[in-house]
Each structure stands twice: as C-alpha cells, then as structure tokens.
Amino acid sequence: MPNKNGHQHPISRMISEINAIFSEIGYTFAEGPEAELEYYNFDLLNVPKDHPSRDMQDTFWFKDKDVTEPTVLRTHTSPVQARYMKENKPPIRIIVPGKVFRNEATDATHEAQFYQLEGLCIDKEINLGHLKGVLEYFFSKFFSGRTEVRFRPSFFPFVEPGVEVDMKLLDGDSKLAGKWIEVMGAGMVHPNVLKAGGINPEEYSGFAFGMGIDRLGVMKYGVEDIRDYYSGDLRFVNQF
Amino acid sequence: MKVVHSWLGEYLGKSLPEKKDLEDLMNFHIFEVDGTEEVNGEVVTDLDVLPNRSSDCLCHRGVAREIATLLNVELEKDPLSEPVELKSINSIEVKIADPTACPRFTASLITGVTVKESPEWLQKRLVALGQRPINNIVDATNYVMYAVGQPLHAYDADLFPQVNGRWNFGVRFANEGEEISLLAEGTKTEDRTVYLNGSELLVVDNSTGTPVGLAGVKGGRFAGVHADTKNIIIEAANFHPTITRKTARRLGIVIDASKRFENALSPELPAFAQRDIVKLIIEIAGGSYEGTFDDYDIHQSAVVTKVKFAHVNRLLGLDLENDEIISYIKRTGAKIIESDTTSFVAEAPFERTDLNEEADYIEEVGRIHGLLEIDSIAPEKQRVKAINLKQYYGDVIRQVLIKLGYSEVITSSFQKKGNLQLKNALASDKSYLRDSLKKNITKVLDNNHPHIDLLGQTEVKVFEIGTVFLPGEKTVEEKTVLCIGSRLKGNGYSPKDDVVVETACNDVEKVLPVDLVWDKDKGVAELDLSALWESLPVPDSYQEVSKTHSVQYQTISQFPAIARDIALWVNENEEANQVIETLVKSAGDMCVRHTLFDTFTKEGRTSYAFRLVFQSNHRTLTDTEVNEIMESLYKVSAQLGWEVR
C-alpha cells in the first residue's frame, strides 16, 4: 500500500497561511512566553491593578512559591507588543500568533486555551486608515475574495481610539459572503503603551489588532465547536 | 445597561430617535446594541456600555446626553445642568476618617413619609429594566440611580440611633476581624455575614461604631426601611473606585452600586441625586424635606487637557478642519478654554471622568464624526526583517511527518498532576501545567485507535509541537517540544510501535542538521526543540504555503461506526476506483469511508479487498441493517460478473 499523508492541524495550518500573507508586507513573526509576567500582560499595557478593565480577561495565576514576580498564563498575545517595543526601535511591523489562556467556563465558542493573532505596526504617521488597509488586505487573501472592513467604537485599555472590526466578503459563494461579521478588536496604540515601550508618541504612532485564530477557522472551515481543535481527535484533524 | 426609550425621551424630547435609528447611532458611534425588546409596555434597548464610559453612561441621563451629542442637539431637560442648592441641616453629622477614600457624603432627612407601593409608572420602568419593585422608598433610590447614575441608600431614621437629637454617621476603614451582616443578595433569602480584613471601607453608626454597610458595595439590615417607617434618611456618597472594587471582588459582590462606584463616579453627583430623590419621594410617599448634611472637603478639580489639531488627523487618518474638531469637542459638553491654530485646551464636563488626556479627545472626535468615514490605505510590499526559526523549522518538521502519515494534534496545556500548579485552576483535573507532551500523545493514541477503520488507517500516527512548563529557579521555564507517537494495536503499546516511531525520528534528524537527543518511551518520542534553533542554519525566506485550502468541516457523528470487508475477483483491466465507485453508490449514504487494503492479480483476474465503514449522524446502525447493505452489494457484484471471494 502507498503511504498516506497525515494532516496538518487547522490552527498551525492557518498560522502558516497568516504568516505567509503578512510576511509579504514586511510583518515579522514575533513571539513571547506563554507564562508571562503580570507586568507585561497587564501593567505595561495600560491595564492597572484593581482597575475595572482587568475584568475583561479572566486570568490564570501561578503560585507565589513558583515565581519571584507575579506570573500569569498570558491572557492575550499583546504582552509581546510590550516586549518587542522594548527590544526594537521603530519602524515595527510584527504579527504574534500564539496560544493564550482565559479562566472561564468552556462551551462551543469558549475554551480556556485558544490561539490569538496579534498585529502591531509602529512607524511615522500611522493612522486608522493604515489599519483598515492592512486588515482588508489580510482578509482578502485569507478568505480568497475581496473584503471590506468597517470600524465601530470600542474600548481596550491598550489602544485609543479603540475599535471593533467587522468584515464583509464582497463576493464568492461562501456562507460568509455579503454579511458583516464582527471579527476582532483593534485600535491606535495608546500613548502610555508606546511610552512604556520606550517609544516617543510625539514622533511615532501605530496600530494594534488582536483576533482569535480559532474563530477564523470557524469562519473559514465551518468548525462548529472550538473545543474540537484541542480534542486530539483525528476524526476532526484529518478533515483538514 | 438597559435603557427605557420613554425615559430617554424625558430628557431628549422630540429628538429621541426611532428604534432602528437609535440602534444604528449607538452601534456606529458609541456602544454595541445587544438588542431591543418590549418589556411590560416599554421599549427597552440593551447597551454594552464600555468600561471607559461606565462612569457617566450607566444611567438614562448619560445615554440621553450621548444621543444629544451625536445628533448635535441640546437636551430638552438635563438634570445635571442646573446648580443645586440643598438646605442644610444640623441634626445629621458625618465623620469621614479619610476623605480620599470618601470624598463626599451627603444625607437628607425626610419626615412623615408613607411607605407603600410605588405608582404604576415607576414600577413599570423598574420592571422594564428587570428590577423587582419593593416599596416606594427603596424604588425611589433605585430609580434615581438609573436616572443620573448615583447609587443611594435609605435608612429608617427612627431605627438609626440618635445622640442628643443628632444622627451620627461615620465612614472609616474596617478593623481586622470585624464582621458585618449584609442584606441577602439576589434570590437568596438569608443575610450574609462577612468577616473583614481591614481593607474595606465601612459606613457606620458613629455613636456606637456599629457597621451599617460596606461603603459603595452593599448595605446591611441596620435601620432598614419597613412598612411602618415614617422618617427616613437618604444617603448619597462618593467612594474611592479602587477600594470599592477590591472589596466587591474579594467578597464576590458585584451589584449596581459597586459597579458604578468602581468606575470613578463624579463626586459632584450626590447633590444632584439628593435634589431629585427628595422631589421624587415627596411626590410618591409624601412627607417633608428637613435638609441635607453635605460633607464635601476635597472638591473634584477641573481636568484640563491640551490637544494638538495635527495629532487628531494624524491618528484618525482624517482631514478635519480645526473648526470641525472644535465643534465635535464642544458637542461632548467639554469647554474650550483656549485655542490657537495648532492646538486647543479643553475642560471636561464633571461627569466625564474618562476625559483625561489627548487620546481621549481624539477618540471623541473619531467616533462622533464617524469611524465609517475612514478610508483604507493599502499596505506596501516589503521584506520581513527576520525569519522566525521556530515557525520555519516547525513547518519543515510538519512536512516531514505529514509525508510519513502523521497527523498533527494540539492538546491541552493543563493536566491533573504535575510540578507546576496554578493558583486558580478551572477544574481539579486541569490544575497543573504539562511538563511533557508524552502523556497527552499517549492518550491521543489510546483515544483514536478505536476509530481506525473510520479514519481509513491501519495505525494511529500523531505528533504535536507545543510548549511545556517546568519550575525554574526564579520563574517558570518554558520549552518548545516535539512529540511523536504511533500505535498499531488496539490493545495498547507494542514494541513494533517503537520501530515505526524510530523511522519518523530518523527522518526528522535528516532535516535538522544538529545532534538530537530524543526521549523515547513506549511508542512515543519527545525532542526538546528550544535549544536547537540557535544552531540551525538561518534561511532567507519562508517556504511557500499553498493558499488554496478549502475545506468544509463536517460534524463528527457521535454514533458508533461498523466496518465490513468485501473482496472481489474482477477482470484484470478493471480499475479499483471504478469498482469501489460502483459499490459505494449502491451502499448509499451510510457508507462513510472505504479503503482498499489488498490487491493481487492471478490468471487474468484481479482481487480487490475493500474495507467499508458504515455510520449514521442520527442513530446507531444495527448489524442487520449493515448486513442488508452488504447483501445488496453482493447482488450488484454478481450482476456485474464480479465474484465475491
């Protein structure tokens, strides 16, 4: 019998695709630890202790005896923004695909672990129009069809203005075509975050975005229950 | 936050938009709308009020003000626009231990009220908001909170001790070990006694020091209003957001009042709330207003911010004139203190405690103008600064293993036992972090082997590339590891598995030109990749990724599958795929998988052996049913001159 090929997991497959799409426009694949210091996960991102904005993300904490500084399982890929800014000078263009964790009850659309895609661009004269352009470029490639993006007001402590991003596939026969779909949060990097990263907000501006890769798969492949990604079930994986 | 349209209309008058227009206005300029419904004869819209606007928009006046800003109209009635004069009173005294923790405390005395049901119009509005009406006094405190955003509390003045004709309130931090009995929460019927650690702020009866409530979080039963209450004291205070929040979180009490205080309410609000509640109570419960004690030592200072016009356009990607920007800022209620050709200085309205820096004002301009107006700027092609080796070699390893028939899995980072335990795990079997992938891969092999026929495989072969966690000296140590596993037999590990895995390890070694140290154990092999990256050659670019990946996922059936084999002699020139196509067509929808597992040719004839797997998405198939399908296949074969072996 000829040897049959195995199958790549849809998440890693999507990450490879995402990287291919973004590397064409100069976005470097950056990464950071999954066990992250509270300092990077929250403080440097303009999410102060005992502030209501922390409620937006339920957090897993490591025990004090195991760490010298308060450490969490990162609740988002955004701490890599802070780490990257400290180590690199603008212009900065990065994507950060990676595993993140939320301490919340699981169901078909929520998992305690999932994958997020972070994007960060810092340069001179960067504005919301650049964010819109990059996202339209990405979605058009990722969903293989012309895509339109629109913004609605939102709030995330590390960006201001903060926006909710909706996308619409303009053509094609996909189930998604012709409908506005809420896909992610984004915005212009908050001056406090730039300053914390050693970047002068008078000189530079930038945008950041974050979305669930699991959810991209729900849209792209029609995955119904995001817990299936992590079930280790080949009846799932081998469909991809 | 739910808002009742008729209530908004009280402030907006004719300017109140129709339902659909209101929803669009909200969605595209301020808050996401969760829906609009009719409750108890009132039209109610549920708004997702964001954390930065929870200080002023968790009430009807705030939302109405916002609508007025967006429509560029004035509020017909604005409870916060008229200065308030409250009659002073000598019979109430308040001692605030720390004015930073409690910048303001007001208490009004109303005598001779009649406690009864609230009038229908008021009950109707509370019910529309999902609240249960209690009595006119308590309902009035809630009503005014939903109107202007200031939480209030009512006491029975006759049950609150007086010393020399004076009521003595105090606000102080709790003593360690002190306890307080709190009113039953939500649907619970019993009061809750909580023990305090000293960080909580208390409202106390200062004559005895008895705690009467957790400041800003929850009231106690002390001096509660009851059916025969005649004289009441209404409290409206301002408490520090962080102190309120810490106490509320620690005790797990998140109610309307604490939610508002923890978002930094303006200390100007209590006076407005007192004016409105006194008027409302006299209207619906009678009585006479005796006066208000107001302790407001540290006044809210005006927040003044300088904004550069160029920064507004630079961040928003718009091309607004200075005048346009100024007009948007004015619409928020902010005052322009000065302006020149390059910048302006604005003073935030007192209730907008969120307007503190330039970016806050830029955001205001963007959303009032409309984010839909922003044009996209297409990105330019450019080279990446660096190739991520983990991603590059990760894909190289994936390709090697996939070619050998291995499928990639991603398993849980949590496990039941280990060395690194989380402080707050989700469940007892997920309380540690994995320090190796071997256990997970073994489990994946165990779990998948029963589906081997359905998968059309003769063995299970999987791998994972993932992060594992180890206790380090100072902090948690992370490693990226690769784990490969193979399973031939259904009853578990057999030594042959090691041979299969060995082949895979060898192929991985060919693409990673460094010494690899595998940790091999019963059909699984793990490799620490973290240490390798630095010693591997740095490529110029990523490998090509095929982008034509269109898969439509099919739900996995939860019902068992049944496998049957069929072997046939056919003419030598007949192709296997033609034969199986015919068989599958006759077998129908229940045949979900077919695999050719044996072929040989002898004396001008070819023998094909197929494994067919039957499964339904809706029910468990019976043997009899499958036998019938197989019988029909034998018949078809006979008609076509194929001999079933």
Which keywords apply here?
heterodimer; A: 240 residues; alpha+beta; BirA Bifunctional Protein, domain 2; seven-stranded mixed beta sheet; two-stranded antiparallel ribbon; 7 helices; 25% helix; 28% strand; globular; B: 645 residues; Phenylalanyl-tRNA Synthetase, Chain B, domain 1; Phenylalanyl-tRNA Synthetase, Chain B, domain 3; 5 domains; six-stranded mixed beta sheet; five-stranded mixed beta sheet; 17 helices; 26% strand
Helix/strand layout:
The complex is a heterodimer of chains A (240) and B (645).
Chain A: H1 10-23, E1 28-29, E2 35-37, H2 38-41, E3 71-73, H3 79-87, E4 92-101, E5 113-123, H4 128-142, E6 147-156, E7 159-169, E8 181-189, H5 191-196, E9 205-212, H6 213-221, H7 234-237
Parallel strand pairs in A: 1-4
Antiparallel strand pairs in A: 2-3, 4-5, 5-9, 6-7, 7-8, 8-9
Chain B: E1 2-4, H1 5-12, H2 19-29, E2 32-39, E3 42-48, H3 60-71, E4 92-96, E5 104-111, H4 120-128, H5 136-148, E6 153-156, E7 162-163, E8 166-173, E9 179-182, E10 192-195, E11 201-205, E12 210-214, E13 218-219, E14 232-238, H6 241-251, H7 256-261, H8 269-285, E15 288-296, E16 304-308, H9 309-316, H10 322-331, E17 335-339, E18 343-347, H11 358-369, H12 389-403, E19 407-408, E20 414-415, E21 432-433, H13 438-448, H14 452-455, E22 460-471, E23 476-487, H15 495-511, E24 518-521, E25 524-528, E26 562-571, H16 576-587, E27 591-602, E28 605-614, H17 623-639, E29 643-644
Parallel strand pairs in B: 4-8, 19-22
Antiparallel strand pairs in B: 1-3, 2-3, 5-14, 5-15, 6-14, 7-8, 8-11, 9-10, 11-12, 12-13, 16-18, 17-18, 20-21, 22-23, 23-25, 24-25, 26-28, 26-29, 27-28
Helix pairs in contact in B: 1-3, 4-5, 5-8, 9-11, 12-15
